[in-house]
C-alpha cells in the first residue's frame, strides 16, 4: 500500500511510456500517485490523466511560484512564458475541486527568482486563503525560502500542508513539525544526509513518500518514477528502527488522513 505523494507524470520523459511506468509501480505495491500540475497547461494535463487512470492517478492542481511571475524554467513540462491570471486559475481549480486531492505545487522559490519576493508572497497568501476556503491540502514547494514559507503558513493558519522536498534547516524543520505539517520524503533518501536527518527528527505520523518524478532519481542515468517509493519506505523503517510493514501501514494512514 505505497503512495507517491508528489510526481509529474506529464513530463515528456514519462508520458510516452506511462502504461509501463504505472505497471512497474503497481508491481511494487504502489496503489496511488498524486500527479501535480504547475500552471495552466499542466493542470489540464493532469486532470486528463486522472480521467484516464481514475483509480491510480490522483490530482493536485498547481500554481508554481516561478510560472506565476512569468519566469521561464527549462524543465520538460509545459511552461508559462507569460504571467498567468491567478484569480482565473483559482476559479478553474474551484470548478474542479471534486476531482482533486490538493492544491499544488505552490509556494515560494528564491533560487530561480532573486527579485520578486513580495509578489511571490502575495500570490502564495492568496493561494493559502483559497485552500482554506475550499478545504483542500496544500502541496508546498519552497526553495531557498523555507523560513519565509513556514512563517507565512503559520501566520495564515494553514493546517493541511505537505512540504515537498523540504530542505530547510533543523530549526525550521522543528517549527514546521510542531505546526503539524507533513513532509514528503524523496527516493534519494538513502544517499541524502539531510533527508536522513529530517526522517530522524520528524514523527513518523507526519511523513509521506514522494518521487518528484522524473527528477531526483535514486538510479543514476534513469528517470525517477513512482515504483521507487517502496525502497524509500524500507529506508525510513531502517532510520526509525521499525518494521517495514508497520511503516508502510503508518505512511498509508498519513496519506489518508491528509488527503482523503
What keyword list fits this structure?
260 residues; alpha/beta; TIM Barrel; 11 helices; globular
Sequence-ordered SSE layout with sheet pairings:
Blueprint: E1 2-7, H1 12-15, H2 18-27, E2 30-36, H3 40-52, E3 57-63, H4 65-68, H5 86-95, E4 102-109, H6 117-134, E5 138-143, H7 146-155, E6 161-164, H8 170-178, E7 182-185, H9 193-201, E8 207-209, H10 229-240, H11 244-259
Parallel strand pairs: 1-2, 2-3, 3-4, 4-5, 5-6, 6-7, 7-8
Level-1 CATH class name: Alpha Beta
- Write down the secondary-structure element order: EHHEHEHHEHEHEHEHEHH
Low-pLDDT sequence parts:
none
For the record, the CATH architecture stands as Alpha-Beta Barrel
Put simply, the count of helices is: 11
In terms of quaternary structure, the protein is: single chain
Determine the CATH topology. Answer: TIM Barrel
Taking Cα atoms only, what radius of gyration do you get, to the nearest Å?
17 Å
Which secondary-structure class do the elements indicate? Answer: alpha/beta
Q: Choose one word for the global shape.
A: globular
Q: What gap, in angstroms, lies between the N and C termini? A: 15 Å
Helix content estimate: 40-55%
Instruction: Report the CATH superfamily.
Output: Metal-dependent hydrolases
Tally of discrete structural domains: 1
Amino acid at each position: 500500500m505505497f503512495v507517491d505523494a508528489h510526481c509529474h507524470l506529464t513530463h515528456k520523459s514519462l508520458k510516452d511510456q506511462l502504461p509501463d511506468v504505472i505497471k512497474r509501480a503497481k508491481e511494487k505495491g504502489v496503489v496511488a500517485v498524486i500527479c501535480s500540475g504547475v500552471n495552466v497547461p499542466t493542470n489540464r494535463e493532469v486532470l486528463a490523466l486522472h480521467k484516464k487512470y481514475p483509480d491510480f492517478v490522483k490530482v493536485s492542481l498547481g500554481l508554481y511560484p516561478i510560472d506565476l511571475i512569468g519566469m521561464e524554467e527549462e524543465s520538460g513540462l509545459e511552461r508559462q512564458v507569460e504571467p498567468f491570471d491567478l484569480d482565473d486559475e483559482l476559479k478553474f481549480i474551484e470548478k474542479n475541486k471534486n476531482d482533486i486531492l490538493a492544491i499544488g505545487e505552490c509556494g515560494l522559490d528564491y533560487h530561480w527568482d532573486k527579485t520578486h519576493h513580495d509578489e511571490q508572497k502575495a500570490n502564495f497568501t492568496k493561494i493559502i486563503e483559497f485552500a482554506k476556503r475550499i478545504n483542500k491540502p496544500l502541496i508546498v514547494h519552497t526553495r531557498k525560502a523555507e523560513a519565509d514559507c513556514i512563517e507565512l503558513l503559520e501566520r495564515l493558519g494553514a493546517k493541511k500542508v505537505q512540504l515537498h522536498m523540504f530542505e530547510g534547516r533543523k530549526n525550521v524543520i522543528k517549527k514546521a513539525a510542531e505546526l503539524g505539517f507533513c513532509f514528503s520524503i524523496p527516493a534519494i533518501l538513502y544517499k541524502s544526509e539531510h533527508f536522513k536527518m529530517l526522517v530522524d527528527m520528524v514523527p513518523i505520523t507526519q511523513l509521506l513518500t514522494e518521487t518528484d518524478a522524473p527528477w531526483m532519481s535514486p538510479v543514476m542515468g534513469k528517470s525517477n518514477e513512482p515504483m521507487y517509493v517502496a525502497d524509500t519506505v524500507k529506508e525510513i523503517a531502517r532510520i526509525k528502527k521499525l518494521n517495514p510493514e508497520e511503516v508502510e501501514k503508518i505512511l498509508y494512514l498519513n496519506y489518508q488522513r491528509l488527503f482523503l
